[in-house]
Structures are given as C-alpha cells and as structure tokens.
Amino acid sequence: MFLLRGLLALVAGFTVVPFAFSAPPSAVDELKAVVVLFRHGDRSPLSSWPNDIYYGNSTLWPDGYGQLNNLGKERHYRLGQWFRERYDGFLPKRYNHNDIYIQSTDVDRTLMSAASNLAGLYPPLDDQVWNSAVNWQAIPIHTTPEELDVILATEFPCPKHDRLLEELYNSTQFQNWNEELASVFEELSPLTGYEDLSVHSFSGLFSTITIYRGFNWTLPEWTDTYWPLIKFWATRKFQWPTYTPDLARLRSGPFFDYLLSYFKSVKGNVSLPPRHVKGPRHQDLLLPNSNAPKFLMLSAHDTTLSDRTNALGVYPDAVPEFSSTVIWEVRNGTQGFYVNMFFKNSTGFSNLTLPGCEFNCLIDDYVKLVEPICIGVDQWKEECNN
Prior knowledge:
Helices cover 40% and strands 13% of the residues. It is α/β, with parallel strands linked by helices. The chain has 2 domains: 2-10 and 160-238, no CATH class; 21-157 and 242-384, Rossmann fold. Strands 1, 2, 3, 4, 5, 6, 7 and 8 form an 8-stranded mixed β-sheet that branches. Strand 2 (100-105), helix 3 (108-121) and strand 3 (142-144) form a beta-alpha-beta unit. Helix 10 packs antiparallel against helix 13 (377-384). This is acid phosphatase. Its EC number is 3.1.3.2. InterPro entries: Acid_Pase_AS, His_Pase_clade-2, His_PPase_superfam, Histidine_acid_phosphatase. GO terms for molecular function: acid phosphatase activity.
C-alpha cells in the first residue's frame, strides 16, 4: 500500500486546467462555418471485470451491451438544443440539407446519438410537421462501414501504426511503469478476477465503473480506493495511440487532411474535392464533395476525441465523457479568416489554443501548424502498408 499511496500522491499533484466559460459568438466577426465532433451518449458497458456481479445480468441491459440508453439519448437531445441556442441565426431553424452535413461512425450508439442530437437541433417547423403527435423530423445521417472508414473510425487496418504502437508498449518506459505498479496489480487481481493486469487494464475498469456510478449502484470498496489511480492511467491510455508525431499522423492524419480541406473550401468558397475510399467491397466513404456546408456534425467515440485533441496538443487531460464535444468555428474578421477551438462537456465550456498560435488562429497559420500530422487517404494507405 506504500506504493499505492505514492502513486495516489502523484495523481493528486497532476495539474488539470480548469474550464473557462466562453461567451456566445461575437456579432462583430462573421461566423462562416462550424465543425462539431462529439462522443456518443451514455451506453451500457462493453466489458467488465470477471468478478462483476452486474455485467452478466442481462435483465439490467435489455438492449444489449454497448447500446445507447435513455440517459444518452436525453443528453444528446439537450446538446442539440445547446447547439440551437448558440448557433441560432447562423444556422436557420428550418432544416435544409444545404446547411448541415452529418457523418457518423457505423455503430448503433453513434448513429442514435446523432439522431437524438438532431431532434434537439431541428424540431420541425410549419410544413415540416408531418405528424402533430411527433415533434421530430427525419434528417439524413451519413455513415460507412467501420472497416472502410479512415476519417472517423479506427478499424481500417494500418500495420505501420500497429507496429509503432507495439514498439512503444514494449519500451523501457512502459516496462518501468508496469514494474512500479506490480504490487497494485497483485492487490487488484483477486478483487477483480483478472489474472494478467497491466497499465492497459485501467481504461476498461474506468469505463464500466463510470457507467455504474451514473446509476448510483453499490460498488465494491476497492473501486473507491483505487479510483484516482484508475482514472489517472485510463486518461494516459487514451493518449498512447497518438503519443508521437508519427503515431498521431497515422492515427488521425486522414481526419485532419479532410478537416483542413473543409477549412480551405470555406475560405475560398470552392468545392471540396471528391474523397472516395475504396475498400475490399468497393464501397465509397461518403463525405461532402460539393460546396462546403456551414455546419459539419461528426458523431464518434471517446477514442476519436482523445486521438484528435492529443494529436493537436490540446488534450483536456481527462477521458472524454459521454457527449463531450470538440468544436471548430471559422470566422472572418478584419485580419482575415481565423479558427477558434472549444471543448464542451457536462462541467464546462473551455477554449482550446493550438500550440504555436493564438486562440484566434489565422486559418493559414492553423493549416501550417496542423499539416505535419495530415496525410491524404491514398498516401496513408500506402504508408500504412510499407
């Protein structure tokens, strides 16, 4: 327990940047475009520890594991209402497909989260009301199979990233961490039922315990005792896939290549180039290839948010909670087009400043700073397999 106390002290001393609330968009500089990337809402567990008394009880999870629950639907509905309040006037109240484009990973909980969000953002108006008893309208949500999606999902194989990540996990640094935590693993093993624990084990524990805490369920005492440690290492785990510039580029490069193309399209008022990704079944990845919509909504996962924020050097130092959102706003002011970034979750709304730039980052400077971690899809596929 001496080691545990020492590690807890380390966790307690870790600095977390507090949230700073931001005012609504300024009326001085013209808002030109918005990109929102959010995590899905609350879900049932994906996995749990062997000794967990709740996980195997199917009556607790009637919709199955990994599925969006009612709290998750409500949370995203409220987030959609928040988008409406913040961007009302910029984004017309009446839905029009030219204004907004919605892309989701091909997973039930992300598709349902996007639909719930849109219900809050776009309640039907006038002739859009198709049933007086249903305050909802159908809005298209685009998706592509996970194994073909290189923009939002991370299931498309990249052998080079896998190799570099495995080298990181086998490094002296990781060996030292596991050795330092050996006595903790020895204590946790009989409590959890896990035989082989490592620094990678904490993220799964964090996820499931967080869900149970949301229901105020009674948990074993060890979940409180080790919670700061679990939370600390779970937070670190979400940084490792983008731990180095090479890892970041291979993990998130196609996303940033697409994002910067979108920014350039907004600035130049030109068409986005077609971005088709041919997979083994010759299906195309659907992305906008006409004039850029003013609002781009992307529904994804905690790993998606942590990968992108860590790659940019603005990781909020916490596992992205359900419905956490990264926002990019493009404005046109006296000095030209610039980009603002924000992070929103249930506890606050904070500014994100790209290292090397000011908060109001001129779009050309933003592009130059992000380009080193950008990679086009074709080049990405070639490098991944080299």
